[in-house]
Amino acid sequence: MASDAERNGSSTENVVTVFGGTGFLGQRIVSGLLDKKVDVRAVSRHPNRNQPHPSSHVKMPQRIEADILNRSSIAAAVAGSRAVVNAVSLYVERAGQSFERVHVEAAADLAAASREAGVEKFIQISGIGSDARSSSAYISARGRGEEAVKTAFPQAAIVRPAVMIGPGDSFLAAVIRLLRLLPVYPLFGSGDVRLQPVYVGDVAEAVARLVSRQSDTDANTFEFAGQRVYAYRDLVREIAGLLRMRTTLMPVPYSIWMLLATAAEWLPGAPLTRNQVELMQNDNILSGNLPGLKDLGIEPYGVDPVVRMIEEGH
Ligand SMILES: NC(=O)c1ccc[n+]([C@@H]2O[C@H](COP(=O)([O-])OP(=O)(O)OC[C@H]3O[C@@H](n4cnc5c(N)ncnc54)[C@H](OP(=O)(O)O)[C@@H]3O)[C@@H](O)[C@H]2O)c1
């Protein structure tokens, strides 16, 4: 029986393997690469979820089932790749799946397997504010993960997106849901924290440019954020305005959010997680010291068109 690769006419010479290629960001990286006529392997534990729409691309990706926690399955998945992207997430710790295991050890294993396989380019998706010295288990694991990846694959590129928005996101969708549901909007703390939400499609395009040799930058750490910095409360007001809704904002202490998140992590789809609450206690904006979207020729979307995209169901 013909494999996906044979049916697609793929060769392994220009294959980019996207771990987490069915996720919110990963599926868009896969689409962006297909648009650039790159052969793609989309790897995840459930590879048939969230595939790009067949009519929108000449080729479809190879769908590979592999678990980043399983060293032999990652070696097989990266074999013959020119580039590898790690877009695997873990937002809630579960038995056998800690932030340390996924964001540090497994990221380093994937980088090491890629180096051993002769991969030219490795991209680790991390997050703005990653900091190995943070007291937050999540933020610290993201920082140590970056360091472990660079040890295993010294030329690896680190990509730190701000909070990403777009159809299917968890951030704007939650704001819109709460605005519709409640007459009074509960803010994280006093709503002072500063955010710079970035359209997920812009981040995907930037990653696709980095791996498809469309960029000649030799920088190896990038921060990707949107057009504008908002205080969280102003962002909620702006979204309410775009939806033509009136709302009253109510500050809610972070300690209460932590309690709510501890309970919500056990609900299907974990609608709120403790690491989200921790992330909302720190500004999530460009440091200004690292290259970003504009250095890759991308003018970032504002929040308004993304809210419209979500409303129109794109
Ligand atoms: N979303 C944001 O706002 C945001 C902001 C900054 C940074 N980031 C970072 O961006 C990256 C992608 O995030 P996302 O929001 O796109 O995540 P996501 O939607 O949760 O997707 C995660 C992907 O990883 C796969 N995956 C999870 N565990 C795996 C495992 N053990 N082995 C192999 N594949 C696995 C998932 O598929 P299966 O479950 O089928 O395996 C899925 O394809 C993450 O590093 C995240 O921390 C996200």
TrEMBL record:
A single GO molecular function term of this UniProt record: protein-containing complex binding
Pfam family, one: Epimerase
Residues covered by the NAD-dependent epimerase/dehydratase domain: 16-215
Protein name, per record: Complex I NDUFA9 subunit family protein
UniProt source species: Mesorhizobium tamadayense
